[in-house]
Amino acid sequence: MAMFDAVAALNDILENLDRDAREATRLRAVLVPELRRVIELGRADAEARLLEERDGIACARRLSGLTDAVIRTIHDAVVWRLYPNDNPSTGEQLAVVATGGYGRGTMAPGSDIDLLFLLPYKQTAWSESVVEAMLYVLWDLKLKVGHATRSVEECLREGRADMTIRTSLLEARYLFGTRALFEELVTRFDTELVMGTAPEFVEAKLRERDARVSKAGASRYLVEPNVKDGKGGLRDLNTLFWIAKYTYRVRDQSELVVAGLFTPEEYRVFERCDELLWRVRCHMHFVTGRSEERLSFGLQPRIAERFGYEPRGGLSGVERFMKAYFLIAKEVGDLTAIVCAALEARHAKRTPVLDRWIGRFRDRFRATAIEAEDFIDDHGRINLRDADAFTRDPVNLIRLFWLADRHNLPIHPDATRVANRALRLIGHSLRADEEANRLFLEILTSKNSPETILRLMNEAGVLGRFIPEFGRIVAMMQFNMYHHFTVDEHLLRAIGVLSGIESGRTEEEHPLATRLIDTISHRRALYVTVLLHDIAKGRPEDHSIAGAAIAEKLGPRFGLTAAETEMVAWLVEHHLLMSMTAQSRDLSDPKTIEKFAGVVQTLERLKLLTILTVADIKAVGPGVWTAWKGTLIRTLYDETEVVLSGGHSEIARTDRVRLIQMALREQLNDWDSEPFDEYAARHNQAYWLKVDTTRQFKHAGFVRTLVAEGRTVATAAETDPVRGVTELTIYSPDHPRLLAIVTGACAASGGNIVDAQIFTTTDGFALDSIFISRAFDRDEDELRRAGRITSAIEKALRGEIRIADLVADRHPPSGRTPTFLVPPDMAIDNALSSRETVIEITGLDRPGLLYELTTALSRLSLNITSAHVATFGERAVDVFYVTDLTGTRVTQPDRQVAIRSAVMEVFASDVAAMRAEGLDALIDSPPPREA
């Protein structure tokens, strides 16, 4: 490929520049189009070479070099044509300096251009004119320019006061102009600012990193990572180099080995991380045409394709690409730990307060002397007595972490570094070692902080080597919108949730699980289950069944009894059962409870499955666990407990409903007994069992007000900032088309329904709660939007508008291929309920989907008696309990065929998109539903 020569092209522009262009506006009119053409050609060349050479650093340097040449050309044109100065005075000197990210000599297509115009002591009319003319050209080129015009003295004064400016100057790179000015800045910066201030700088940079990471995402395993500012991203590498440059006084990255900060191997890791992150970032900017830093789901397939990843071993191309990305992010974390350890050794970084997690245990535990001969207490951190500790006894690779947990001490980074280099020692013999497995099981089931220790083991690479099945899911993401973290991060977080439940720290949020955990007999089995429940993700087969087989193999190895191993295998195989049943079945239908109890069979399994389900859902990500889900799981547990205990569920249900009503009665202290009894009698048992007490209280006030006002149709709206949803409450006389009207009004306003609770009172009124995805950050804006939706619902219910017309206007057919492809599937079942036919529909979620489904069902003269709406990221799972107009189940084969045909027609565009991608086999045989 012929390389585009930007410098030659720019020289041609200067040589052929109109000699009459001696006025600023005229010069820009001539110069800007020519420069824009060179920039476009230069970027196109950089993109083509990036695709061919696959070198992110080379691309970033090429773009930086192009920018250097363009800025030099602008300067020369301005000076030659507008402000010639053949004999400049000492006050008319100017040096143009690249600072910040641009100063490193690397930039992405959408990066900012940070420039420092350096003056001798004060600005003269000539230098002011030159700088201003240059900036106007850069702005006309639509380049993002950050600039400062300062003398050397001003730079030092500003740098002394502001750490951001100091960091920017640390990266200063001479471009052109009076070199002596630049050299004076560098020398004085070194002697007057850097000398003796390393600890202050390091502390500031690490504090700044913490703030940045918490904003961009506190885990480096978020499935839509910020490549620039996220944990494990480019800015982390930049921070390491800034700190090293400031502390070790190096000028170039390659000097980090000579300075003793990295070994040659570690420096190769640094370079590999730097290159891949730059490659990803450059591709993202090229693909989007802007400075996009978040590797979103929409971008991931396109970047994976540019990297050349294809499906293999049960993983799609995009999942393989993201795994490679997360492994790099993990290595950036390892490098961060190495640098912090080295800085502490030099006393450049103040010795930190012991790891945050230690603080939680200091009051409860007192560290004792370390009893293992190969380890020492090194100023409150566990370190190796000598570097051969792991070679002499490989069990020490597990014992190191066991001691950290036992004595509540952090591990010295040097010990972690040696452990990381000794991973080859973890082979078949160590995995089979009884002592190693005993120590590991004690770590996993510790009452201290098992999540923290397991995460340290994972970061060091020990966990994935000791349990190869776990190693397979390290850094593995699932290409869907439901899971916020990689599989290994999800499992470790689930252990943390379980530990929090057992310690009582989360009793307010998880009262049922907290009560149950003290009554179980299989505590060790529960912890092993939580660690293993998703361990078979990314395999072609059903991960629950494959995971159970892995559990059967690992249980005896860990030292579990046969009964414990059997329990773990059963729990792993059925770990989705309770969640799915609670969220997509009618829990007031005895058939639902009977079938669920038939699978669970024992109270011990029920307790363990309940706690596992809570930990699993909570660990998916922020906002996924809700009070409503907690209420559904509690109701399913209570109903099933009665059956498994040999009691009669109807009796127990009546008792529970009475207790719930009594609790609400106490809250409604301004109600008289008679009005409350009348109100309570209006609700069926299902309402009292499924709706949480906070919502029951709100409903009571809502209904009381509108009844007093004589209204039969009313709506209300409120925001839920924790879940990121807006809740709409609808009260109306019930009729078959009600749900279609409500969902249609949401669709017409662009509201995507993520949850719904639908109830009918004993006197024929509907009381529905609809939850839609939030569209605005500010509550005022969101509530205004909710008001438009509720207004449309009320008008439609009064017959003033036609919902179908509103929806047609809002959602014209789209020809765009969706980011996610979910094969539609449905099941019609008459065995799940004694009264209704259950229709379960799975497909790609989109605004208006629920409206289309409810409309399709109502056109078939089906009455929806209850609906269970759930979304798992991009996947919608909608379950409808229906009867025909005579109130009986749908049993005729031809009616069932008509229902299937009508529902599948709703997903026709999704099916067409999948066939276009060659996914016919997936359409004909959809995979099992997983959450």
In short:
This protein has 931 residues and is of the alpha+beta class.
Helix and strand content put the structural class at alpha+beta
- Separation of termini? 47 Å
What low-confidence regions span 5 or more consecutive residues with pLDDT below 50? 350-369
Strand content: 5-15%
Helix content: 55-70%
The total of helices stands at: 43
Computed over alpha carbons, the radius of gyration is 33 Å
Q: Report on the biggest sheet.
A: 8 strands, antiparallel
The strand count comes to: 14
Global morphology: globular
Q: Please tell me the overall pLDDT.
A: 87
Order of strands, widest sheet: 7-8-10-9-13-14-12-11
What do you see in this structure?
The chain is an alpha+beta fold. 57% of the residues lie in helices and 10% in strands. The protein is built from 43 helices and 14 strands. It has an 8-stranded antiparallel beta sheet, sandwiched between helices. Strands 3-2-1-4 form a 4-stranded mixed beta sheet, sandwiched between helices. A hairpin with a 4-residue loop joins strand 5 and strand 6. Helix 13 packs across helix 14 and helix 21 runs antiparallel to helix 24. The radius of gyration is 33 Å and the shape is globular. The two termini are 47 Å apart. About 2% of the residues have low confidence.
